[in-house]
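The methods section describes the discrete structure representation at length, but only in general terms. The central task, working out the structure tokens from the amino acid sequence alone, is never made concrete. Nothing conveys this as quickly as seeing an actual entry. For illustration, here is how one protein appears when written out as sequence plus structure tokens:
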Amino acid sequence: MRIGNLNLKGRAILAPLAGVSNRPFRLLAIEAGAAMSFTEMVSSEGIIRSQGKTLSLLRFRPDEQPIGIQLFGADPEVMREAAAIVAGQFRPDVIDINFGCSVRKVVRNHAGAALLKDLEIAERVIRGVVEGAGDIPVTIKLRSGWDESSPVYIQLGKIAEQTGVKAVTLHPRPASIGFAGKADWAAIGNLKKALSIPVIGNGDVWSPGDALRMLEETGCDAVMIGRAAMANPHVFKQVNQLLATGESPSGPSLLERINLALKHARLMSEEFGEERGIKMMRRHLVRYAKGFPGAARIRPLLVKVCTTGDIARVFDSYLMEDLYDHGITGVRGIAEDQD
């Protein structure tokens, strides 16, 4: 799939995830075969004011590419200026505009999904970003509408195409319902028929089989995976294998998931310092352990860890004791390699 001058080598893309899509997580996804990663959404106001915390969200390294930076904001001129700064100083492969976030602090400033209520301003925002981005392809990510009574995704998709956007990602739920109900994949197919630029489908892709089914049912060019990747970054490897061979891939083994969690923790410690990085890692650890036999015992321990060694010892105890209680034997300890 091509997005402007960018040629992607796969059809499974990591979604921008607020509070999650930092360098360690993006790197795991790219190493697992994601065709592209995205930063979490970044405030255009913070960019033009050179706020340190905001600018830190924009930094990436070559081993995370291809990468897109997602912007949010409601002022067309501020968005244009922010896009120009991102294009000039950071040079991502793609600049994306958020038209899907319904978090209160975003929509009360008329940004994110709130722009679905005013397509005139949305068009001006798109034009501003396309102008500011220069030679970097611009994409948009949107919900189907603000609520069920006002689907605007085809109208905004056409506006985007006409103003120079190179690809559109659709999560086919109204913004007002969040993640409730079921994503209406038929809307992705409708948008694909209406546009000549690539359409990326997003929403309720929990497994490689879901990804294949979305591609087949909607005709979309790629799938964007978010929540499923949070518990299993290897999902991109699995999707690629299914698309390449037609054979259903097996998921990572329990030990592979533990080793991935430990690698993630080490990357977080390197990126943010051990104290901060491991505190940030705690919620990820709970996701990695979801579905483990006897996981209820280790969840309270994982949310209290302070070092990578602590994490290794929790998993080591689990492998050597809890699995034995569940009739699983022969697993070697791991803690001695982690301190």
Q: What stands out?
A: The chain has two domains: 2-245, 254-337. The longest strand covers residues 138-145. Residues 326-339 have pLDDT under 50 and may be disordered.
